[in-house]
Design the sequence.
């Protein structure tokens, strides 16, 4: 049976499409996009109608940076619960990092994750580690990981400190034509740091992580990626200086892309306030000037994609002393809303916002996703940008509740999420 | 006047009136120490819990003596430093202690902000006995009590704080308290120990110890423990004492009536020369007696006492 999503405003950055259209889905794929009311054509066959009146119809969102905690930490999140949170947030494809237990540094773990992902509500793409155990000692079997199904390589959470090792990783990843996603943070400069280094860290007497901890690594990896001629993607860019380095590299046609998280473009170091552990993340929330630079770089295209760094943690690692608390916050169910807040305040166009959440991550990782062009998988997100919802603990679908946005009223209520033509989430 | 708060977490949020009230109350308790019978029945029936997540015999003993002189019952807990991996959080531990119905919990913790987190979650009053490098209000209040005693007040007073400012809770609390009361504070030390943006707390940063000392009324030296620093912030104790230590020559830069304070225990020959530490200007030992009176005042005021 066919499905017609009718009456909505279709925005598909990949096709430069923005206007009232009907979307016709046949089986698991997009059949066509038609003028409004024409989706049915002359056909007499039965179809299912999804009313998208006043809504935006977008390709399903893609989150190229999540932590699903399975295998190893299923108490925090599983691939299934993570996918529940994803589809509630409008995401139809999520990309999970390798810092599970065991680490996804070999084909067996990749196979396990892909097996578990069959039950998930959305597409789950694993990332393989670049070094075994994320330990910066021995390179993982990158070719075998690719053959097993990973879409990129990353030691996210850790940083490969050995520059020679990183060079060899770039060389091999380049040969296999795969991108390397980098958590750029000098481990010595950031050692036992708990927040951004600045006046607030001085006031709170917390060990600071200077912006330079990120910037020296961004600079190093840009130069190493140039040396190897391979694709580098900087994860969760957080400082104005890092943005400038990436701008410099892009001007010189070095193959670098980057992502920003909703928490870095929304919050700043001062939001740590009275030792709020939900605001403890890695890299840390930065200064107001850094946030402004990130927002500008989102608009001007230096920052390519929005990714959540969804990092579930239970209370044993969060309702404790700030300096001992774990880094990370969940983000799948707030990303669209926080992005739309930037659209509301005119810092970003809706078109650009959705581009960063759909076609851009798809391009970086070469996923068959992020567009509503005929023949593409019918992964769709239908949301109303003007309808708001209150994000409270009762609505959180993630297994963990560690978010500083609890209690926020956010725009962009998701009404329908479809994966492979199937409705996997209905908002009420 | 009574103190209108259940907790003493730091000097940062204490008003001029509150600081004066605490110092006045401490003064009135001070003579008890010189009496033959050193006990008053003020806090009879109250329970004070000393919860120390970090070893500190001096501060814990001082709070314990203060509580006993006020006739309160005291219970001491010395807990492991980290809650990670124990399956029980710091909050769980304190909730268990709360079941004993204490009136005040005095907490020392190696993590900045731990007492603040606690205060939000429990009913009894919380007195911060030192949290990480953040605040140490009872120590700063006793320093201020001594300064007020000797100098008659704070307005216009020039105070130099020298040493590892970044990792000193004594420095932070004194900076908040002294600047609030109208004193002018200068800080100095190795560049690796001056935290970013410290001027925004209302102090000036002197590039050399000599400039910091010139014309000051009070010199406050901080304890330096190079061997305990997790990260390499300084080369050697010899280099430290040569460029940042207090010696007789440098003391002469201060006003003739300036005196020297140190939260103790001192490292002779490192941050302070032996001769200077033992000189007439030194107030290192006197601070111990004042400590009990200030802590009596804090216990008395957070349990609802007033004058
Ligand atoms: Zn990361």
Sequence:
């Amino acid at each position: 049976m066919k499905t017609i999503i009718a009456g909505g405003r279709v925005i598909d950055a990949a096709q430069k499409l923005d206007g009232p259209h009907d979307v016709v889905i046949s089986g698991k794929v997009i059949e066509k996009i038609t003028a409004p009311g024409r989706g049915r054509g002359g056909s007499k066959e039965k179809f299912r109608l999804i009313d998208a009146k006043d809504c935006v119809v977008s390709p399903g969102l893609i989150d190229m940076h999540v932590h699903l905690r399975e295998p190893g930490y299923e108490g925090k999140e599983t691939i299934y619960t993570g996918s529940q949170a994803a589809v509630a947030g409008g995401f139809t494809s999520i990309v999970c990092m390798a810092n599970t237990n065991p680490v996804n540094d070999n084909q067996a773990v990749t196979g396990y994750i892909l097996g578990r992902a069959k039950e998930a509500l959305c597409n789950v793409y694993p990332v393989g580690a670049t070094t075994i155990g994320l330990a910066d000692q021995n390179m993982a079997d990158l070719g075998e990981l690719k053959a097993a199904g990973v879409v990129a390589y990353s030691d996210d959470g850790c940083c490969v400190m050995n520059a020679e090792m990183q060079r060899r990783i770039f060389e091999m990843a380049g040969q296999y034509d795969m991108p390397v996603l980098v958590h750029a943070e000098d481990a010595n400069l950031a050692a036992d740091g708990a927040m951004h280094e600045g006046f607030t860290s001085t006031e709170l007497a917390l060990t600071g992580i200077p912006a330079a901890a990120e910037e020296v690594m961004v600079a190093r990896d840009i130069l190493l990626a140039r040396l190897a001629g391979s694709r580098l993607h900087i994860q969760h860019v957080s400082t104005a200086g890092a943005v400038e380095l990436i701008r410099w590299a892009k001007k010189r046609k070095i193959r670098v892309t980057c992502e920003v998280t909703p928490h870095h473009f929304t919050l700043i170091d001062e939001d740590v306030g009275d030792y709020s552990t939900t605001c403890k993340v890695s890299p840390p929330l930065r200064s107001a000037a850094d946030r402004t630079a990130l927002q500008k770089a989102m608009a001007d295209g230096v920052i390519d994609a929005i990714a959540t760094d969804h990092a579930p943690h239970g209370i044993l690692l969060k309702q404790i002393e700030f300096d001992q608390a774990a880094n990370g916050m969940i983000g799948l169910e707030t990303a669209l809303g926080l992005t739309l807040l930037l659209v509301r305040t005119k810092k970003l166009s809706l078109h650009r916002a959705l581009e960063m959440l759909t076609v851009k991550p798809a391009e970086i990782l070469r996923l068959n996703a992020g567009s509503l062009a005929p023949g593409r998988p019918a992964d769709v997100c239908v949301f109303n940008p003007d309808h708001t919802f209150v994000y409270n603990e009762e609505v959180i679908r993630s297994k963990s509740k560690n978010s500083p946005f609890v209690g926020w009223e956010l725009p962009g209520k998701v009404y329908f999420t479809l994966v492979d033509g199937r409705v996997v989430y209905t908002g009420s | 006047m009574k103190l209108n708060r259940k907790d003493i977490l730091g000097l940062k949020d204490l008003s001029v009136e509150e600081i004066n009230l605490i110092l006045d109350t401490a003064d009135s308790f001070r003579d008890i120490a010189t009496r033959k019978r050193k006990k008053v029945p003020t806090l009879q029936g109250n329970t004070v819990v000393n919860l120390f997540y970090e070893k500190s015999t001096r501060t814990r003993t001082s709070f314990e003596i203060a509580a006993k002189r006020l006739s309160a019952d005291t219970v001491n807990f010395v807990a492991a430093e980290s809650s990670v991996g124990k399956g029980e959080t710091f909050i769980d531990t304190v909730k268990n202690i709360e079941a004993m119905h204490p009136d005040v919990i005095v907490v020392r913790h190696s993590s900045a902000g731990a007492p603040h987190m606690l205060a939000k979650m429990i009913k009894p009053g919380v007195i911060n006995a030192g949290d990480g490098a953040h605040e140490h209000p009872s120590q700063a209040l006793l320093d201020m009590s001594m300064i007020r005693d000797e100098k008659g007040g704070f307005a216009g007073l020039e105070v130099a704080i020298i040493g590892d400012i970044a990792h000193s809770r004594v420095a932070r609390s004194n900076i908040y308290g002294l600047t609030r009361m109208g004193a002018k504070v200068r800080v100095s030390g190795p560049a690796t120990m001056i935290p970013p943006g410290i001027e925004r707390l209302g102090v000036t940063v002197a590039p050399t110890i000599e400039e910091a000392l010139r014309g000051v009324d009070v010199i406050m030296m901080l304890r330096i423990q190079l061997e305990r620093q997790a990260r390499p912030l300084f080369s050697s104790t010899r280099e430290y004492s040569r460029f940042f230590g207090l010696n007789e020559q440098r003391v002469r830069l201060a006003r003739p009536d300036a005196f020297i304070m140190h939260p103790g225990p001192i490292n002779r020959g490192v941050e302070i020369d032996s001769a200077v530490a033992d000189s007439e200007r030194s107030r290192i030992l006197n601070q111990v007696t004042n400590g009990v009176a200030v802590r009596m005042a804090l216990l008395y005021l957070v349990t609802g006492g007033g004058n």
Summary: The pocket of zinc ion is lined by residues A 156-157, 183, 235-236, 282, 309 (CB under 6 Å).
